[in-house]
Amino acid sequence: MPDSVMQQLWSTSHLDGGNASYVEELYELYLQDPNSVAEEWRSYFQKLPQVNGHAGSDVAHSTVRDHFLHLAKSNRRPQAASGGAVSSEHEKKQIDVLRLIQAFRMRGHQASNLDPLGLWKREEIVDLTLADYDLTDADLDTVFRTGELQIGKDEATLREILDALQVTYCSNFGIEYMHIVDSTQRRWFQQRIESVRGKPQLGADTKRHLLERLTAAEGLEKYLGTKYPGTKRFGVEGGESLIPMLDEIIQRSGSYGTQEVVLGMAHRGRLNVLVNTLGKNPRDLFDEFEGKKKVDMGSGDVKYHQGFSSNVMTSGGEVHLALAFNPSHLEIVSPVVEGSVRARQDRRLDTTGDKVLPISIHGDAAFAGQGVVMETFQMSQTRAYKTGGTIHIVINNQVGFTTSRQDDARSTEYCTDVAKMIQAPIFHVNGDDPEAVLFVTQLAVDYRMQFKRDVVIDMVCYRRRGHNEADEPSGTQPLMYEVITKHPTTRDIYAERLVGEGVLTSDEVQERFEEYRNALDNGDHVVKSLVKEPDTGSFVDWAPYLNHKWTARHDTSFDLKTLQELANKLTDLPDGLVLQRQVGKIIEDRRKMAAGALALNWGFAETMAYATLLHEGHPVRITGQDVGRGTFSHRHAVLHSQNDGRAYVPLRKLSENQPRFDIHDSLLSEEAVLAFEYGYATTTPNALVIWEAQFGDFFNGAQVVVDQFITSGEHKWGRLCGLTMLLPHGYEGQGPEHSSARLERFLQLSAEHNIQVCVPSTPAQVYHMLRRQVIRPLRKPLIALTPKSLLRHKLATSTLEELAEGSFQTVIPEVDAIDPKKVDRVVMCSGKVYYDLLEKRRNEEADNIAIVRIEQLYPFPEDDLAEVLAPYKHLKKVVWCQEEPMNQGAWYCSQHHMRRVLSQHKTKNLYLDYAGREASAAPACGHPSMHAEQQEKLLQDAFTV
């Protein structure tokens, strides 16, 4: 019988390890004579796929597991019908003991003591009882083989086996790992956990250090509660074991050679982490409590949203810690952290994730309830977003705001069940047992470092003060808080335990508490491993990007000859790369464009922007759902061979030592992916980082990222970001969903020069816009409304000279040779509608009308617009024309800028008129005929209103 068949049969089933020979024997009998085995077994073997003449390969794990579980529950245990079959009563019980062992591995966590308050009502797990396996107390002193159970001997009495299983899998922590398909990982956990019975021996120094960290956690909360009573701080009281847990993660990962740790967390416990983990000076925190405003902080933000960074020393060297800024949208910081970590790993050429570690700290209700958690998990092993595994910590307060009933909070047993989708191991641990917390933390770090996958620690605890310190939680959870008010703190419980063990005296415990409080009174740093003069060699220098005005001009021209050389390299494809016919035509056209024999289209100009930036030393990263090809087949930055399907990326082949060019089609996510790219861009100022929506309105699924980070991150936190969003936009008569990129939303969020909103209308414009984004040292997010039909429009072309010599124009004046003296009407517009207006004006030979394009709607270029309008001294009408409905697009948010310019024009009393669709609840109509009728009317209005 082939090993692969046998392994598939027993390694994924409930009948694991020691009974492999029993199943193998049955299978061999079946192969010789199917009638020699019981019908139930025969039916099972018959359903296994046939591979190379053998059954049993490529069987779905769930199918095998479910079938064996069914057999385990059945009173009709299959028996071989003839020679060599298991027959003796002892051997039958041997199999039952092996099943019992597997049951504890699978379900022991459900019988663990996880709730420090003792309020959980958990049903008896029948699978963990002897009776469920036809075993009784009379069998307790019978010796059985232990199979793969790691208890130091091959045989033991059932009593010893049962005791070992209960201590290992049903103590103050429980582990879920049997859902992991990889048998190597499962055996790793079995060896690590079973060999020490789930409780390794700790030295006195380790125990004293645990108490010291608990003292710090509790001491800060009590200090703040006394000094600033009733003030919101979202304390970690009830979950103080978080602080020794973080300390262990940092120190242990440092011993592996980790050089940076990036943390993301919402507000619960954040102040405690800032002071007791990252080493923020308590005096600075007290200043924030007292409302002392820092200089040049914009609007600022509440203290429990602030980020911080520092360096600490570990046995493996200095480790840089960074706590990400986070709004109150809880889980949205998780993908931001992943993006920041990936950028740091890329900068360090850390392809395995050894040098930079992400930690995400969650609340139980948010972890179970917010979809971005699932999206972030789904990213964890993908090429574009993997970071070598994240350590997830759930501060499980057992209540979300006021929702505490499990049947209201989620549809799963645990809040962490969502992590099973990526087969992440999950540790559930009682937060009142710091030694158990330490053990699972060490396992989590070791697992992450060895297998480079996500791992989850679910620390079951409680919140002593309610949702915040001004809350009265007994109004909604009276029974829980009746218990909490009488429940001793984690520190008190552990201190009493250590005194009982003789590790410390009661006086020494009190001395440590007083020592910490005195440090707070003195405003001293309370993290002993803090590095006061950190090594700044790996830090990113943001100084060159500070204090720049958006109006400053920067040269985005590029040498024409070098431009052509780069273009030729992009179309010089390797032998054997057979392109699809239409793609081949695109590449051939680009060869002609490079030679100056064909007008440049959008795809060529955009690609050349990336090529020239790479040539000048700037990395480029582009992600989105269709970015390799481009949703509208214009980019083709990734070429696919029609012979063997291999991918070829010309932009990676410009030179031997060029910067990174990363381009990845993303998973079908907007929220997590855009947040990831924001995190990446905030960590890599010298790169062009782009997220492109499949259609412009897809960013709706990531609106929280736009609102909380992209448009306000600098103002709230002083966090610079040069992220570029490419949002396809344009009314083509294809319905309401994919016409509008919701320009009005970005303009409504525009203030204090926080973002750039551009609507480029020519290939040269997108080329210079993208180059300007990196070459100009101003780091502001760029929202670019890009076209669809214009990608191949006969009039939307440029020349090589416009790329080589031009620059981005915030306002494009009239392009036809119209005498300014004849012009009495100016139509201003942005985007695709310009070409409709241009063709109508040319067809009607209306040489009294000038058409002006505003290519940057924010910051609004008032001076540039005034300069363009100045030659028209005989104006009678000025019209703003847009395709969007009146309540959408640029009209409401930009008209005051335009009117301000008109008020300064030499022609007095100019009034700004509107030409566009009527106000509408939907972005566009769904009927092509109605669209055409509306489009014709708005064009006519632009010329006659």
Fill in the keyword field for this structure.
945 residues, Rossmann fold, disordered N terminus, single chain, alpha/beta, seven-stranded mixed beta sheet
Q: State the end-to-end distance.
A: 86 Å
Which class do the helix and strand fractions yield?
A: alpha/beta
How many helices does DSSP assign? 32
Mean pLDDT over all positions: 89
Largest sheet: 8 strands, mixed
How many DSSP E strands?
Answer: 26
Helix content: 25-40%
Overall outline: elongated
Number of domains: 4
CATH superfamily of the largest domain: Thiamin diphosphate (ThDP)-binding fold, Pyr/PP domains
Strand residue content: 5-15%
Q: Briefly, what CATH class of the largest domain?
A: Alpha Beta
Task: Give the radius of gyration.
Answer: 33 Å
Tell me the CATH architecture of the largest domain: 3-Layer(aba) Sandwich
Strand order of the largest sheet: 5-11-12-10-9-6-8-7
